[in-house]
Amino acid sequence: MANKKAPAAGWPIVSGEYVVGNPESCVGVVTLGSHGLEQACIDAGAAIAGPCHTENLGIEKVVANYISNPNIRFMVLCGSEVQGHITGQCFKALWENGIGDDGGIIGAKGAIPFLENVGKDAVERFQRQIVEVVDLIDCEDVSKITAAIKECISKDPGAIDEEPMVLDLEGGGAGGEEEGATVKPTSPEIALIEARMRLISEKINDAAILAKYNAGYYNGKVQGIAIGLFLSLLLFSLIHPLL
Fold it and tell me: Could you check whether the bond before residue 12 is cis, i.e. omega within 30 degrees of 0?
């Protein structure tokens, strides 16, 4: 029997749009932009399951709920990826790379992947506690998701040998949503605009590199023709007296 610990009093400590199951389960499920998968995940044995739309405040709240329950050792990412925010990829980057000194999630591709209320200590605890992130991003197949949950449960290593870590998110909301928080999240529209601006910037840089290459190629071609012409004239001038 895997060793279990009591989660923080009142767990989940951050309220919101999720369904809670057995707090001693080793699996937490994030359904990203999909809704309606939560109860099936709980029935399969998950401790908590719910959506997460944003790559900043939403991720902070999921992390807060996970590290306040030492029994959660696996995170299953499933459901549709959130366009613009790319929350699923940001979760993976957070677990793999952590955050920089500015709070930015290293390697994240979302519009604004910065954690303002969760510091390095909490992120490192999250990285230690979660032994595996199961990538089922863009999968809404209930049978595949529940099979992944049950497989994680079969590998339950027991609770992490640390006490629950409780974060104060200043009255925050859901395990991935934004209601009631004092830090105002970026709206989806703004995030999409910024993501598209970033994409346009990358395309402009690519076009500039291509233009630079073409200019160099053209200049080299012209120089090659000029040198060839010069050598031809030189050779002709050398041969001509002999004719």
Answer: yes
What residues contact 60, with CB distance under 8 A and at least 6 apart?
Answer: 115, 116, 117, 118, 167, 169, 172
The predicted model scores a pTM of 0.71
* End-to-end C-alpha distance for the chain, whole angstroms: 102
* CA distance linking residue 134 with residue 6, whole number of Å: 24
β-bridge pairing 48-50 and 19-20? antiparallel
Model pLDDT for residues 33-57, shown as the tens digit of each residue = 999 999 999 999 999 999 999 999 9
Confidence of residue 100 (pLDDT cuts 50, 70, 90): very high
Instruction: Give the separation between CA 42 and CA 22, rounded to whole angstroms.
Output: 8
85 is in an annotated binding site: yes
